[in-house]
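Hi everyone, sorry if this is the wrong subforum. Our group has a chain we'd like a structural model of before ordering constructs, and none of us has done structure prediction before. Sequence below.
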Amino acid sequence: MPKYYEDKEEDGRACGGLREDFKACLLQHDCVVKEGKKPSECLKEGHCKGLQVAFFECKRSMLDTRSRFRGRKGY
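Answer:
Right subforum, don't worry. Here is the predicted structure as tokens:
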């Protein structure tokens, strides 16, 4: 599901690729576009759940001391 662009600015933050895909998923979902709800309301309804979990795991792996050996999760 990652999106790669040739003329894209490099996001130096951790889990930047997941963050971008998660944001795009929420903003392009029918819940936001057609129904006019806020992205936070759509999250509570369970939309884009897979990317939300992956983003959480990536952020959590930053705090995990074992990640020094395993590396950060995500892209």
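For your construct planning: The mean pLDDT is 81. DSSP finds five helices and no strands in the chain.
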